[in-house]
Amino acid sequence: MTPQAAPINEAAVAAFSRDVLNFPLFPKQAAIVSEIYSDGIREAILRTGRRSGKGRVAAVVATFEATVRADAHLAAVPPGERVSIVVVATSQQQARIVHRYVRKFLGAPALAPLVARDTDDEIELTNGIVIATVPAHAAAARGSAVPVVIMDEAAWYQGRDGSPLDAKEIYDALAPSTAQFPERRVLILSTPRWSTGWFAEMCTRAASGTFADMRTWHATTAEMNPRISPAFLEQERAKDPPAFRREYEAEFDSGIGAVFEGELVRAAVRETERLPAIPDVRYTMAIDPAFTGDTFAAIVGHAEPSGRVVVDVVQGWHGTRGSPVQVDRTLDELAVLAGAYNNAAVLTDQYGAQPIRQGLAARGLSVSEKPWTNETKVDAVAAVRRCLYSGRLEIPPTRELISELVTLEQRPTPSGRPRIAAPGGSHDDYATALLALVNELEAPSRPGILGVYDAMLKERGTVSEKPPEPPREWAVPKAPELARAQCPVSLRVDNAPVRCQLWHGHPGEHEPGEPIQI
């Protein structure tokens, strides 16, 4: 028999969690969830900090809806029709974590008799309700009626290749299936990612007050989870203030954004993982050495006469503190890999340990060191962008590489040059090796660029180094090569700086309203 509760009021959900599930919610968690039910909110958007218990809150709501609210949902469909409470998580791993929370809650003495079937991603109850916990890339209504949709960490959804997935697609697929249910509910929880995108738009829409049954809540990690110590939070704030504002204060930071557009990266992916070596072609291998925690990444590629940069193979060795990467064995495998590609020249940075360089040289490899700083990383990002925009980059379908490229972020620094790095808790080993490789192989065709500008100048104006006059808007031709050159001369037309309306990158490329540098 389905457990029953008093009519829904401000205390019902919190009491259910405390008394039936033996899981007392923290005060702020309880207050938000109770408001959702007491105020009849059908679409609730929770913007909260990292480690604020979003997964457990999602599991509490899913369990409550599948048991206490079961009769109300079943009354809206014909007898025997499948009814699902769907929880969507960022990845398969996170979906399994939420699934374990739900499984534990349903193990409570009052609820355990309800469990009829328990698989890796579904729990079917004897009352006719199914709780499905699925990764974002597999989310679908599956032909069943769905009264409740819970989207956990919606701003951070990942596709099968590890790249960001637009949560709007999932929302559009699942939310309409709730329409037939009078007690329908859509719960969207997430730490914010970027100040643009679907989650940011949903927060804005909910905060506008236009929709009576839609509301948003904002709470910091400290408010949601008092077990997180103030000392820990202060340490995190000191390490990276912009990241702290986003991760723990749940603020949208307009200065943090994606380095590469996901669609452009995916367009550069070929079908085959590894290409065979071509005789007489000069190959380069970029490495990002690491031994514990991170991945020792190696990427081999070459440049075609057309200027196209091809990544032929990606390889990595992952170590842990207990089992670090074995140096000699890894260097032996690197030597074999380089030999398979016409004795590829090895490129590393100043952080590569001297024993690594000596070991590779002892194995007959040509090793060169290129300084790797935030400034050179910014330049390398510009090189990859040029290749992506002009369709001159080809990469294999290596999930880790794709994921790191599309999740790489840029954020402002006091110097004005952006900091390029993976978001907190993520890795950028493969991405770093690719940046170094493309920066080494990609060579801008300056005569072609200057030819474009020469034609523009003959028609519209002259080049000048004088201080700019008040600007006049002028859209440049949509040609990716326009942003290749970098020197201190500003292009001017009719004694006014030209405004680039194409490039929307970081300083070093051309921001809207920034004079083009040639």
Number of helices: 17
Assembly annotation:
single chain
Low-confidence stretches: 1-10, 445-518
Number of E-type strands: 19
Mean pLDDT across the residues is 79
Q: Give the overall form.
A: elongated
The secondary structure category is: alpha/beta
Strand share of the residues? 15-25%
Helix content: 25-40%
Kindly report how far apart the N and C termini lie: 75 Å
| Rg, alpha carbons | 27 Å
**Biggest sheet record:** 8 strands, mixed
Order of strands in the sheet with the most strands? 3-4-5-2-6-7-1-8
Structure description:
The structure is a single chain. Helix 15 crosses helix 16 (about 430-440). The protein is α/β, with parallel strands linked by helices and about 525 residues long. The protein contains 17 helices and 19 strands. The chain is about 35% helix and about 20% strand. It is elongated, with a radius of gyration of 27 Å. The strands form four sheets. It has an eight-stranded mixed β-sheet, sandwiched between helices. Strands 14-13-10-11-12-15 form a six-stranded mixed β-sheet. A three-stranded antiparallel β-sheet has the order 9-16-17. It has helices at about 10-20, 25-40, 55-65, 70-75, 90-105, 165-175, 200-205, 220-225, 230-240, 240-245, 260-265, 325-340, 355-360, 375-390, 400-405, 430-440, 445-460, and strands spanning about 45-50, 85-90, 115-120, 120-125, 130-135, 145-150, 185-190, 215-220, 255-260, 285-290, 295-305, 310-320, 345-350, 365-370, 395, 410, 420, 490-495, 495.
